Automatic annotation (TrEMBL):
Domain of life (superkingdom): Bacteria
The entry's keywords: Membrane, Transmembrane, Transmembrane helix
Name recorded for this polypeptide: Zinc ribbon domain-containing protein
Transmembrane regions: 12-35, 47-67
Length: 133
């Protein structure tokens, strides 16, 4: 069985999420900023809420997406609720924890439980995946 690839996308989303939350929080909390280079005080009190909340919303959105990514592709065996499935179209194994989302994260194809998959679809067997019995 193929090992799932480490999901860099998830880490990128987490990083972006934290960066935006930090930035948004800073915009709301620190409304006056002294710029040494231009020797002037930048004051964005008027836009602190719309700008800060927009940035926070972006951050929360990215973190939510990262969470969704990790819950979809988490390979940890401690999560007993997850089910091993395989995509009918591209035959990529994947773990799901939500039966409402029975679609392949790679190609959008239909997922079926991995157990007994090749018994139900013997035509999909090839030499690499055939069990040696
Ligand atoms: Zn697929």
């Amino acid at each position: 069985m193929k090992r799932p690839v480490i999901n860099l996308y998830k880490y990128l989303l987490t990083f972006l999420g934290l960066a935006f939350v930090y930035w948004g929080g800073k915009v709301i909390i620190v409304t006056k900023y002294y710029s040494k280079r231009y020797d002037l005080i930048m004051d964005h009190t008027n836009v602190r809420w719309p700008l800060g909340l927009a940035l926070l919303a972006f951050g929360v959105f990215f973190l939510y997406r990262a969470y969704k990514e990790s819950s979809k592709r988490n390979t940890s065996s401690t999560q007993l609720a997850e089910t091993e499935t395989i995509c009918v179209a591209c035959q990529t194994p994947c773990l799901i924890d939500d039966f409402e989302e029975m679609t392949c994260p790679h190609c959008g194809g239909e997922l079926e439980p991995l157990a007994g998959f090749y018994e139900r679809h013997p035509e999909l067997l090839d030499e690499d995946t055939e069990p040696g019995h």
